[in-house]
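SAMPLE LOG
Freezer: B-3
Tube label: C17
Construct: single chain, 250 aa
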Amino acid sequence: MKRFSSELAHNYKKYSFGYANYCLHEKGDKLSEIYASGYLPYSGSPDVKKVFYEARSARVSLKNFVLTSENRRIANKFDGKFKRISKSIKDFDIDNKSFLSFCVDYFSKRHGPSIMPPDRLTSILKSGVISDIVMYEKEGKPSAYYFECSDEKMSHFWYSFYDLNLIHQSLGMWLMIDSARQAKERGVEHLYIGTVYGEKALYKTAFKNLEYWDGQKWTADVKKLKEIARSEKERSVDFIDEWKKELKLF
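STRUCTURE (predicted):
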């Protein structure tokens, strides 16, 4: 695991100097060790492969994982409604037009067309990081997909795509809940669920045994996490680090 940093911003008067931190997944590295060090896979450029970025990510400890009352409320809506099919990415047809269209259409309508254009989706699928693609079917038709990155110790619930008619019924959260249950059954230690920035990401705090990366270590202080996420505007900047300036970005 080769680490590197890139200059981002500074406040010289207060002696505060910011750097964006990255690492390169090298041969022999274990995914679980990279994730445990606070990194997530970077997918912002077609020119970059197997690079991970450090961020305020969150994970769920699965050893004593149980559903909260809010988790159970959502689980009761969808449990038993879909057929779950998990395939190794090596056995999945990532060039299937219907599959690609489903994923691109979801992001375009949910988040805007610039977030997940077709070339970015293809780049992610060929990144070498995804281990499995999980599909949920209803009456023979796909209702949802999510990409999983995993090894024997960890699982990362990466990108998900689902039927837009079910957005307001919390299907996205149910997919995350179901991935946690499945990972626990396999004996996985942690489920990584992405970053927590801003109020919109606070739904992830509905999990018990949640930890977040504070830049040095994993901490279970969810109250502090909520405070930080709700005061995001104080730290947000509208520019990129020096390393990314040399890249072609999506």
